[in-house]
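User: quick one, sequence for these tokens?
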């Protein structure tokens, strides 16, 4: 009986000792300590923050009118003002089953990779959800001229002659416009000097330093030296 009682007292002492050892439930990064050495703690007191930043869980609000375009597994790209040159890809993991009656938005939860540990909990991120991507021919907005209800671009031909061409425009994004019909990828369009340029004028293609490109002929006539841009195929969002 004395032996069993002693064993019970040892077990109780070990249990009390174990209550004074705090172990993190998962591996992560510790933040600032919020207590001082010698502080008496009570249950629920905050000691330090612990964050697993190997991946970031991101909640974003999607307007009700766009909720039909969002689904689990959908790709997205997030950007941060702290790292303007970096893009953080991720995927949608969950779409909330309810719409907020006040904001008319639904909460969408996504997961972002954070191998470099650049993103931190609480950061504000801008998110582009990639919905129904497609290939499209894009040109700079300044290359498109409107005349009445028609749109035109000046195409720089292989013979160094600028020719006006009617095009059909589609959707727009910052700085670019989609050409639905009238151009093919790889054709050169004029982006500078359009005010004085006329159909059939001879031009010279120059680079950003003003040097002729591809040995083009010297421009003749009153039109200035435009710098042709090249339409490219881009992914529309």
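Assistant:
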């Amino acid at each position: 009986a004395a032996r069993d009682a002693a064993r019970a007292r040892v077990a109780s002492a070990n249990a009390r000792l174990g209550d004074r050892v705090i172990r993190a439930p998962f591996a992560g990064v510790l933040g600032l300590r919020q207590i001082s050495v010698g502080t008496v703690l009570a249950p629920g007191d905050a000691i330090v923050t612990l964050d697993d930043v190997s991946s970031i869980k991101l909640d974003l609000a999607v307007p009700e009118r766009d909720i039909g375009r969002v689904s689990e597994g959908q790709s997205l790209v997030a950007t941060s003002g702290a790292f303007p040159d970096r893009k953080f890809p991720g995927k949608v993991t969950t779409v909330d089953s309810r719409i907020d009656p006040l904001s008319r938005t639904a909460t969408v939860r996504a997961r972002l990779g954070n191998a470099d540990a650049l993103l931190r909990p609480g950061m504000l991120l801008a998110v582009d959800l990639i919905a129904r991507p497609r290939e499209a021919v894009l040109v700079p907005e300044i290359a498109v001229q409107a005349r009445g209800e028609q749109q035109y671009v000046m195409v720089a031909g292989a013979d160094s002659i600028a020719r006006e061409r009617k095009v059909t425009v589609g959707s727009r994004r910052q700085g670019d416009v989609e050409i639905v019909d009238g151009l093919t990828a790889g054709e050169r369009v004029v982006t500078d000097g359009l005010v004085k340029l006329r159909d059939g004028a001879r031009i010279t293609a120059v680079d950003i330093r003003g040097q002729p490109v591809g040995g083009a002929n010297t421009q003749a006539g009153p039109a200035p030296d435009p710098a042709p841009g090249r339409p490219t195929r881009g992914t529309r969002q």
